[in-house]
Amino acid sequence: MKFVRSIFQSGFLSRLIKTGTSYATTEEERKGVIVVNCLCLTTAALVLLIGTIFIYLLESVYITIPVILEFLAFCSIVFINRAGKIRTAKISMYCLQCLCATYFGILMGPVVEIQLLIIFLIMASFLITKNKLERRIYLFMSIVMVILTEVNFYYDFVHYIPTSRNVSFLFRWLAMTGILTLILEVINFYDQKNIEYQEKLEKSDQSKSIFVKQVSHEIRTPLNGIYGIAQLMKEDASKYPELVQLNGYVSDLIDACHDAKAIINNVLDLAEIEKGKLHNLRASSFELRSWLNGVVSMHKYVAFSKEVSIQVEIDPELPDAIIGDEIKLKQILHNLLSNAIKFTNNNTVIEVKATRFHQRWLLSVKDAGDGIREENLKTIFEPFVKTENRNIESTGLGLYITRQLAGLLGGEIRVRSSLGNGTLFQVSLPLMAGVLPAIPTEEMKPDLQGYKALVIEDNPMSQKILTNLLKGMGATTAVADNGIEGLSVAASFIPDIIFVDAHMPLMDGDETIYTLRKDPQFVKTLIIAVTADGFNDDAQTMIRAGADELIPKPIAFVEVRALLKKHLSTHPVVEH
Fold it and tell me: Which of 1, 84, 160, 305 is the most buried (most CB within 10 A)?
């Protein structure tokens, strides 16, 4: 026992298993050498152990000499690897397994479990080589081995060694134990390969997620500046007649920003789908008509640039409030409307309808474009399928994402189209009536006269856009460049509304919000988080820290005003 322990402790066995790996040119080849060495050494050990029992009980020269030769042959393959003959060692091991199995199968008859042995050989062939031709050759050799043993068993060309019933029973169990040991060793190698593959896959997914997140953040931040300035210019152009000639250019700029935002969102959703994370549902009761009109109004800027109008029709049989995931439903409609505006012809009408059909409700968007060829309708919901029109930019992800979201919500999407008659997309969804609290009759206007608003944001352009928007609604504003400065300004300024960016130097947004909420002065203050990250996990971090709402960059003024309308009644002006 001390001698065996010293062998393991000296690393002799480990060095023996790795014999010949220095000649491997790839990691895959190196692992193949280790597999061959392990299988050969295991087989040699089993031959020595089980063969010795066979020799002792049978006392036959037909057993003794082959057992000794088989033991030496399997040990010698390790030295073939040591000589750098990796492929020769691999082929020699497999041929030797088949040869010995055939010999002992013929000699011992039904005692050798040839069915189990062929399972081991087939599994080993897939483990030691990826070459299809080599695998076929190995499989052919295994089949020949089975045929030879079965033919001899049937016709009795070579008489197998007779044994008593008890000895046959013992030999059979010894043979099964040996073969099962080899099978378990092969399975163990497969498990190791699977674990390594999973680890590589996880690292790849993590790297891709980090990359997508960083790229999204880097794109959204400057896009927020462009989109914000374009919206401010649009509002100024509508106020001052001398700027009316800028309307067309500004509308085109807003159109481009809107498309860029849609592309970023779809790429992020694709990453979520690939990770298997796009499954979180947040069902709530919301007012259908105001929701639908709100989403459509966000697209009117873009549609205006093509002189396209959007008509909304809502079935009176639909309930005032429904239960569903408002955010995912909004994204479905965003994608369909973006598509419709992109592909419809100028000076046309896009029809948006919400209708009831038994216990389901149908959300449809119809454009007045050139239509889709019938052969293309089969692949339109596949990822990265693009339009034939080269003048229209598209990632080919919008409809794929929409179908995934519809399925997630228990619905489905259909398309009807014909050349020259436009295209109709219809989403069928489960209808569940909701109940809303009583809505005040007095109209809530986004009037911020008397309110104080603090913008905690490290990007100067984003600071300017938010402060200009808030000043335009009558608020008194203050800014801070990071979380620590934001806490100091908040303590002296005592704002009613605080906008906090997610990523800032010195102190991130979630920590800033958490610290603000611990201060009794800001327990009920309206805090809106602003983020350039697109993943749901990041959004939930801000909400858990204490944010009331979250707005993604690039910021849409319509969304900011809608949120302020929603919260002004529950967040009155702080008395200073």
Answer: 305
Residue 82 corresponds to which tokens in the numbers above? 């040591």
Neighbours of 566 (CB within 10 A): 15
- Residue that is written with structure tokens 């929409």 in the block: 402
Q: Tell me, letter by letter, the H, E, C secondary structure of 115-136.
A: HHHHHHHHHHHHHHCCCHHHHH
pLDDT tens for the chain, 576 residues: list them: 344 444 444 467 778 888 888 888 887 788 888 888 888 888 888 888 888 888 888 888 888 898 899 899 989 998 898 888 988 888 888 888 888 888 887 877 766 666 677 777 778 888 787 788 888 888 888 888 878 887 877 777 887 777 777 877 887 788 788 888 888 888 887 777 767 666 665 665 565 565 555 656 566 666 677 777 778 777 777 777 777 767 766 766 676 666 566 666 656 655 565 555 555 566 778 888 888 887 888 787 778 777 889 999 999 999 988 888 887 888 889 889 988 988 898 889 999 999 999 889 999 999 998 888 887 887 788 765 555 544 444 445 678 878 888 888 889 999 998 888 899 999 999 988 877 655 444 434 568 888 999 999 988 888 888 898 899 888 999 999 999 999 999 999 999 999 999 888 889 889 999 999 999 999 989 999 988 765 555 667 888 889 988 888 878 888 888 888 888 765 555 544
Does the reported pTM lie above 0.70? no
Domain with CATH 3.30.565.10 in the chain: 281-430
C-alpha 118/C-alpha 146 separation (Å) is: 8
Q: Which CA distances in Å does 501 have to 10, 382, 482?
A: 59, 36, 9
Query: Where on the phi/psi map is residue 207: left (φ > 0), alpha (ψ -120 to 50), or beta?
Result: alpha
Distance CA 454, CA 132 (A): 67
